[in-house]
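#structure-requests
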Amino acid sequence: MRIVAVQDIQEKFKLHFESDCQILFRTLAITIVKYKTELEIDMYRINSQEAVSYQISQLPVYV
């Protein structure tokens, strides 16, 4: 009877642990994707600004 109770507790703990890990990893994955997207947007902005400033610097200057 006692062994069954211990196994039952272990099973419950295992299920809780697995679901907690799944939630944790899912949250981590979402966070990584979010920051990756934000980083790509920032890089796009930086590249766009560099491209614009480069184009402006290439304009002919009339004195």
